[in-house]
Design goal:
The structure holds two protein chains of two kinds.
Chain A (H helix, E strand, L loop, with lengths): L5 H4 L3 H22 L1 H9 L21 H6 L13 E7 L7 E6 H17 L7 E4 L7 H12 L3 E3 L6 H10 L4 E4 L1 H13 L4 H4 L4 E5 L5 H11 L2 E8 L4 E5 L7 E2 L5 E6 L13 E7 L10 E7 L1 E2 L11 E2 L4 E2 L4 E3 L2 E3 L1 H9 L4 E12 L2 E10 L8 H19 L4 E5 L10 H4 E3 L4
Parallel strand pairs in A: 3-4, 3-5, 5-6, 6-7, 18-21, 19-20
Antiparallel strand pairs in A: 1-2, 7-8, 9-14, 10-11, 11-12, 12-15, 13-14, 16-17, 18-19
Chain B lengths: L6 E9 L4 H11 L4 E8 L3 E8 L2 H10 L4 E11 L5 H11 L4 E9 L2 E8 L2 H10 L12
Antiparallel strand pairs in B: 1-3, 1-4, 2-3, 4-6, 5-6
Classes of the chains: A alpha/beta, B alpha+beta.
Chain lengths: 433, 143
């Protein structure tokens, strides 16, 4: 699909890096001069703006964490006065205080530009009707997608979340061609539609979805594309970056992160060391043009890898892969970082066991032990103990291969593992440290 | 004709912890299914409960609906004299015929004793046992 902003989206990588360096320099000088929080942080780290001589020198700058935003509640680390702000969004505080994000006019402008590039890379254009079924309000999803879609000239249907039957009717009646929502809401909508006797695939004009705000998988993509007759695109962002910001293009080979707006680093979650392209680690972003709430080396806590090199679509900016999990979920087993999401991915490739699992970590003497409970699949169940032991050892071998840590596997009865309770029950850590 | 001696055993995956056998047996009781014979094979943290019942299809459905992992396995039942030497007679027949036993369990009831066997070549085993004067349980013991 033709670029929205060809000069920027197809900028040669060297030129893009020069632009990023220029933007970083001016950002750091501005923050050092005018933002008390950043100046203090940089002084603590003993780094001065003059020390940033190449783009790689960004690694000298201090990291920023979610807790810095909470501690600065509501607006103590803003770099703009209230009368320069045109909007606030507030992210829900599941633990402790919520965080407030302020936007200048230019912040909204850049946010819309970013999504306009993403949306048009998937073919959204004037003539399309896009149903925005992200929540509108303090949450960034609804208004973010709304502004981006209006920017490309599409007609926006701002349905927000809920009243799903009405959403299905409107989708049919107004010939909606695109939707932006969470993947789980789209699945729900598909089921509600079927109960109403409506097949989204055959009875609507829907042909693309921008799905995000929660993790999803390639398996879900295949299922939704086949079932709903759409192309399903991943969309990524967090309120700290502005909101939903970046999407895949029609190649579906990673999310394009516009380098003139954001500088991506992937760091080792334990050491903070910058990792190479292709290596999995914690996504860390510096927002290069954000005015009201600047973000420098912000540790988002999502796990992914960065891919450099031009996409087949012709866009030159770095891409990030699917989010593999949260850093908060990281377990350190005998000094090795282990993520529950790695276990999940390994199990998906072993047909003999189901995809549900539970990890039990314990300490025997001075050694950590890791037990993974899995359910034997119906096809693989044999009444011969030897066959079952072969499955158990095969799973152990496979997990050891992908985690680099030896793992005990326990076969359990179907249905006995936690389904949707999230991390709290997927991981049981019995070590008393 | 060998087919009429193949008995459908149900096998149930079970975790190795208190109450699991009670859950299985309770479900069969509630469905009015009678158990002729059963055994438990245990491994590391799990086991397999194997049972001969009067209505294997119903037992399979009942337990599957409750979330158990259940499968059918073809076994044969060899009748034994319920007196000293009974097992020895049968074991000799099997050994002489070169039949390898994957697993076995037995029961002794009012109609005599029965050795239940899982072997790799069921039909061949049936021919060999009958050919050497052994007597087999009819599959029709279960409906």
């Amino acid at each position: 699909m033709a670029p929205w902003n060809p000069r920027m989206e197809e900028m040669p990588p060297e030129e893009l890096r020069r632009l990023q360096f220029k933007l970083v320099k001016s950002l750091v000088y501005r923050l050092y001069s005018f933002n008390d929080f950043y100046r203090r942080r940089m002084k603590e780290q003993e780094v001065h703006p003059d020390d940033i001589r190449t783009l790689e020198d960004v690694a000298k700058l201090p990291f920023m964490y979610k807790r810095d935003l909470r501690d600065g509640y509501p607006d103590r680390i803003f770099s703009a006065e209230q009368n320069e702000l045109v909007r606030y969004h507030v992210s829900s505080g599941t633990t402790g205080k919520p965080t407030v994000v302020g936007y200048t006019e230019r912040d909204i402008e850049n946010w819309s530009e970013s999504l306009a590039r993403g949306f048009s890379s998937c073919g959204l254009a004037r003539g399309d009707v896009i149903q925005v079924s992200y929540g509108y309000g303090l949450f960034t999803g609804g208004l973010g997608a709304h502004y981006g879609a209006e920017r490309v000239g599409a007609t926006v249907l701002p349905t927000s979340v809920g009243n799903t039957e009405r959403q299905v009717e409107l989708m049919q009646d107004l010939h909606v061609t695109a939707i932006a929502c969470t993947p789980s809401y789209l699945l729900h909508m598909g089921e509600v539609a079927e109960k109403m006797g409506v097949s989204i695939k055959n009875d609507t004009d829907l042909r693309m979805g921008f799905l995000g705000a929660e993790p999803w998988s390639e398996q879900m993509r295949t299922r939704m594309e086949d079932w709903l007759g759409i192309r399903a695109y991943d969309i990524y962002g967090t309120s700290e970056l502005s909101g939903p910001m970046f999407t895949e293009c029609t190649e579906q080979q990673g999310i394009h992160v516009w380098g003139d707006l954001a500088l991506v680093e992937i760091v080792d979650p334990a050491t903070g060391e910058v990792l190479q392209p292709g290596e999995q680690g914690e996504l860390t972003i510096t927002m290069l043009q954000k005015e009201a709430l600047p973000m420098v080396r912000y540790r988002i806590g999502d796990l992914t890898a960065v891919e450099e090199g031009a996409c087949a679509c012709g866009r030159t900016h770095p891409r990030i892969g699917r989010i593999r999990g949260r850093v908060d979920d990281m377990l350190i087993i005998r000094g090795i970082n282990v993520f529950p999401s790695q276990v999940e991915h390994a199990l998906l490739e072993i047909p003999e066991v189901g995809r549900h699992f539970q990890i039990v970590v314990d300490r025997k003497g001075a050694l950590d032990s890791m037990l993974v409970r899995v359910e034997v699949s119906e096809e693989a169940f044999s009444d011969k103990i030897t066959d079952l032991m072969v499955i158990k050892r095969a799973v152990e071998h496979r997990l050891r291969g992908s985690l680099n840590v030896s793992v005990d596997v326990e076969l359990v009865e179907p249905g006995s593992l936690p389904r949707f309770e999230g991390k709290s029950k997927k991981v049981v850590d019995r070590r008393s440290l | 004709m060998e087919k009429s001696y193949i008995v459908k055993q149900i096998s149930i995956f079970s975790e190795n912890r208190p109450g699991r056998l009670a859950a299985i047996a309770g479900a069969l009781r509630d469905a009015g299914i009678n158990i002729f014979a059963f055994s438990i094979a245990e491994a590391d943290g799990f086991g397999v409960v194997r049972a001969l019942v009067d209505r294997p299809d119903d037992a399979h459905r009942t337990l599957t609906d409750l979330g158990f992992r259940v499968s059918f396995t073809d076994v044969i039942g060899v009748k034994m004299r319920d007196e000293p030497g009974g097992l020895s007679d049968i074991a000799s027949i099997l050994g002489d015929a070169g039949i390898n036993i994957e697993y076995a369990y037995a029961y002794s009831g009012k109609d005599g004793a029965v050795l239940i066997l899982r072997v790799d070549q069921v039909e061949d085993a049936i021919r060999q046992i009958l050919g050497r004067g052994g007597e087999l349980l009819k599959a029709s013991l279960s409906r």
